[in-house]
Design goal:
Residues 134-258 form the GFO/IDH/MocA-like oxidoreductase domain. The protein has helices at 13-23, 40-49, 59-63, 79-89, 104-115, 132-142, 163-167, 188-198, 275-281, 284-291, 314-329, 340-356, 367-381, and strands spanning 4-9, 30-36, 54-56, 70-73, 93-96, 122-124, 149-156, 203-210, 219-227, 233-239, 247-253, 256-261, 265-271, 301-307, 360-361. With 388 residues, it is an alpha/beta fold.
């Protein structure tokens, strides 16, 4: 069987997980041939643990070695575009870990390069796109089963992180080292999913709290109001200080509603007729019967409840397999890399709205303004070099 020669850059929690998936045979079309990590202690461990793999301390050496066909970047967020660009420029395919980058200016440069180099593949590790639950929800919306979207609400506060989590590394929860807090670390998958399913918002206005309940410089509390092209609105709420946590997604359409609890249980209610038609044709006697509980709701809508389970590791390994099969056989990509900018731009816009106190129009997003504002905060930290 033909296999893609694969290399992992960064052997932390994610990198080691991907190595395990491939070595355990969960990614049939991949052969792990090389691992790179700049930490000397890890290098010694890797040589011992993987005697048959090439071990590198410099990602450029691995990419230019001729040993790998493709790589994944499991490194700090700021490095994702830089490493991806170097690999692609050397004819090596790239699967970028989320997010695509920290700020839109660097991600745009990467996307522009990819657009003019069709010989290499660039994809994103958006494993939630490989979740059967969200795939089914996306199809329900795309097939028009709940009609045009009127509102989206997602409260996702299951990211509880105690202070020791932030204190374990000097770069964590900093503007210069990580580029933000919950929006760039914990919530990128949800920022991707809401756009993948409901469409890219046109405007955003936010209220962010920085170091609200934790001793950190970046955001640990976010409330964002979004607007879509058709006038629909959306609310996105997330934080890292809610120990009890809530994960609830609602998508309201003209012909129905989807409610997702804990990213597991889905309730879909489909109206027999659109709300517009019901509103137009229902007389006052019908309204009275409805309000008094005398109307059979089955005459108005149907209800479907389902759950979707995916075994641990299947989502990530599925993206790895899809990436390999796209390169080897032309299979459609689950997450084309160019789409990674959508989540980065939305996170940037949420930041910028609070920083400026203004509503941000995404099609007119000012890359330089955001970078300047980000660098102001990096300069105040006085721990890291400014970005450009």
């Amino acid at each position: 069987m033909k296999k893609l020669r694969f290399g992992i850059i960064g052997y932390g929690a994610q990198g080691s997980m991907y190595a395990r998936f491939i070595e355990q045979g969960m990614v049939e079309s991949m052969d792990l041939v090389a691992i790179c990590d700049s930490d000397e202690v890890k290098q010694s461990q890797l040589v011992e643990s993987f005697p048959n793999k090439k071990i590198y301390n410099d990602y450029k050496d691995m990419i230019t070695s001729g040993e790998v066909d493709a790589i994944i970047t499991t490194v700090p967020h700021y490095l994702h575009p830089e490493m991806a660009m170097f690999a692609l420029n050397n004819g090596v395919h790239v699967l970028n870990e989320k997010p695509a980058g920290v700020y839109t200016k660097q991600v745009k440069a990467l996307n522009d390069f990819v657009a003019t180099n069709s010989d290499v593949t660039y994809a994103m590790m958006f494993n939630q796109r490989n979740n059967p639950l969200y795939q089914k929800i996306k199809k329900i919306v795309e097939d028009g089963e709940i009609g045009p979207i009127r509102r989206t609400n997602w409260i996702i506060t299951t990211w509880w992180r105690p202070q020791p989590y932030y204190d374990q590394s000097a770069w964590r929860a900093t503007w210069g080292g990580e580029g933000g807090g919950v929006l760039v670390n914990q919530a990128p998958h949800q920022l991707d999913l809401i756009q993948w399913i409901a469409g890219v918002p046109t405007k955003v206005y936010s209220k962010i709290k920085h170091g609200f309940r934790r001793d950190i410089a970046v955001e640990d509390e976010v409330t964002a109001l979004m607007e879509y092209e058709n006038g629909a609105t959306g609310v996105f709420v997330t934080c890292t200080h809610d120990l009890l946590g809530t994960d609830r997604l609602e998508i309201l359409g003209d012909k129905g509603k989807i409610v997702v609890e804990d990213s597991k249980t889905v309730t879909v209610k489909r109206l027999k007729e659109s709300e517009n038609i019901l509103n137009k044709n229902m007389d006052m006697e019908d309204v009275k019967r409805l309000f008094m509980g005398q109307m059979n709701t089955k005459d108005l809508y149907s209800t479907e409840v389902f759950t979707e389970e995916s075994a641990w590791g299947e989502q990530h390994s599925g993206v790895l397999e899809n990436f390999a099969r796209h390169i080897l056989y032309g299979e459609d990509l689950l997450a084309p890399g160019a789409e990674g900018i959508n989540g980065v731009r939305l996170a940037n816009a949420i930041h910028l709205s609070t920083w400026t106190g203004e509503e941000i129009v995404l099609k007119d997003f000012d890359d330089d303004l955001y970078l300047n504002e980000l660098n102001k905060r990096i300069k105040e930290e006085a721990k890291f070099d400014l970005r450009r």
